[in-house]
């Protein structure tokens, strides 16, 4: 019972001081981890969308604003990701903003999650 009491005290202290600059990055990482695990447990399509969006955002950090905006627009929903994949990865339509190596890398990320995105 003592261990549980101390656990509750520690959790309350963390919640109380969670806006402190030293704790905030760890709190955000913990929240993202919990959200990822909850999404995986709840719906694999939503988890795949969230994971794809996170990977595309991380990949677009090294590119320009137009390319980043194009990938954010593509990762809004599952349908938009499927449309982006169909148009630019499968049909090889020309995208004036996202082309060459960035498009190949984006298509590779979408392809890696496509089976989960396409589940019924």
Task: Characterise this structure.
The chain is mainly α. Helix content is 76%, strand content 0%. It starts with a helix and ends with a helix.
Gist of the model:
With 120 residues, the chain is mainly α. It has helices spanning 2-16, 24-42, 44-60, 65-74, 78-90, 101-117.
- Principal-axes geometry comes out as elongated
* Count of helix runs: 6
Task: Find the structural class using helix and strand composition.
Answer: mainly alpha
Number of strands: 0
Report the C-alpha radius of gyration, rounded: 19 Å
**First-residue to last-residue Cα separation:** 46 Å
Give helix and strand order, one letter per element, not per position. Answer: HHHHHH
Helix-strand blueprint:
Layout: H1 2-16, H2 24-42, H3 44-60, H4 65-74, H5 78-90, H6 101-117
Helix pairs in contact: 2-3, 3-4, 3-6, 5-6
Attribute tags:
120 residues; mainly alpha; 6 helices
């Amino acid at each position: 019972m003592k261990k549980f009491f101390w656990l509750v005290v520690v959790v309350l202290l963390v919640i109380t001081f969670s806006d402190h600059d030293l704790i905030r990055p760890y709190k955000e990482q913990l929240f993202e981890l919990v959200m990822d695990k909850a999404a995986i447990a709840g719906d694999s399509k939503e988890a795949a969308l969230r994971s794809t969006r996170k990977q595309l955002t991380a990949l677009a950090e090294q590119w320009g604003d137009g390319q980043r905006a194009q990938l954010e627009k593509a990762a809004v929903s599952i349908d938009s990701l499927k449309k982006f994949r169909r148009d630019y990865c499968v049909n090889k339509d020309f995208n004036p903003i996202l082309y060459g190596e960035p498009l190949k890398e984006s298509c590779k990320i979408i392809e890696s999650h496509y089976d989960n995105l396409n589940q019924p």
